[in-house]
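Here is the promised in-class demo. Please do not try to memorize the tokens; focus on the logic of going from shape to residues.
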């Protein structure tokens, strides 16, 4: 579905979730790498500026800044443990945030919105290679269905805003993002910041590095600053309502074992590396909830 935005004046871009991993990368590209064009204005919102779960506060912040374009990154996020325990909160909070943001954008006349989805929205049982046409083909993984369905519904919003009002609201689906200002929490963060933190502790304590799982799952990692540059391209050039996957190529996919080796090498870790199967990746949801 191709859409055409009507806006010739310089953009005023509002970024929700502007203080997170991707938001700060976009800030860096815009302010330090000349990513912003002359006359453009960029506003980065954080949770301190408005509670986007609240409809009135969301409307007020949009009326205050009157953006022409929006990059929507804000979401309730968390690691797998938190997701498994609070599926209802992830569903409701994210549905509210997304509905408030997209409707406020529509009401103040925003011509383009680029929202951020996640690869976890894809069906649990799928064929490979995965592409953008497959996101509604079957239920997502059971562990974080609340978050995954809420994110999927952004695509429903986007199609409906286009159908009813001709709005150019779209979404991107990044693969596993890493970079400066990542979440380095071992329990709650993703694998690269988690491993970096664990190597730091192992180096300090003279203990082994424990890598969770078999090491054989494969991931496509994308550096947050590369993703930020691609976000700008989507905002300026991508003319579709349909979401687009932002990833490295398939040949650059790496196993968790290779990712762990890269972290070990970069940090010059000389200690022992062990794999552990006693982590969440081998617990079923029921087993975890029974802990
Ligand atoms: P995903 O890409 O959304 O599945 O999330 P992650 O980045 O958290 O995890 C990817 C894989 O890395 C899983 O198979 C984990 O078992 C494995 N893994 C190995 N060590 C770690 C670690 O220290 N932290 C995390 N989060 N995952 C790890």
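The designed amino acids, position by position:
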């Amino acid at each position: 579905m191709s859409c055409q935005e009507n806006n010739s004046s310089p953009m005023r871009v509002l970024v929700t979730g502007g203080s997170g991993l991707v938001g700060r990368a976009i800030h860096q590209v815009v302010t330090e790498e000349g990513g912003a064009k002359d006359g453009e204005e960029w506003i980065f919102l954080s949770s301190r500026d408005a509670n986007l779960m609240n409809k009135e506060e969301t409307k007020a912040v949009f009326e205050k800044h009157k953006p022409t374009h929006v990059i929507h990154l804000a979401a309730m996020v968390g690691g797998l443990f938190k997701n498994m325990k609070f599926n209802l909160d992830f569903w409701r909070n994210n549905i509210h945030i997304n509905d408030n943001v997209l409707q406020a954008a529509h009401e103040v006349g925003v011509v383009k919105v680029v929202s951020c989805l996640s690869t976890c929205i894809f069906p649990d049982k799928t064929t490979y290679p995965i592409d953008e046409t497959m996101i509604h083909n079957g239920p997502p993984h059971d562990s974080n269905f609340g978050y995954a369905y809420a994110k999927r519904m952004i695509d429903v919003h986007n199609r409906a805003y286009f159908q009813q009002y001709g709005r150019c609201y779209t979404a991107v689906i990044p693969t596993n993002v890493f970079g400066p200002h990542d979440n380095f929490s071992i329990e709650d963060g993703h694998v690269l910041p988690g491993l970096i933190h664990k190597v730091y502790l192992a180096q300090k304590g003279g203990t082994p590095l424990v890598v969770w799982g078999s090491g054989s799952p494969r991931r496509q990692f994308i550096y947050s600053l590369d993703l930020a540059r691609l976000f700008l391209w989507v905002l300026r050039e991508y003319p579709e309502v349909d979401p687009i996957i932002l990833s490295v190529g398939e040949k650059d996919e790496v196993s968790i074992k290779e990712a762990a080796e890269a972290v070990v090498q970069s940090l010059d870790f000389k200690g022992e590396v062990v794999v552990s199967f006693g982590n969440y990746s081998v617990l079923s949801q029921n087993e975890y909830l029974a802990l």
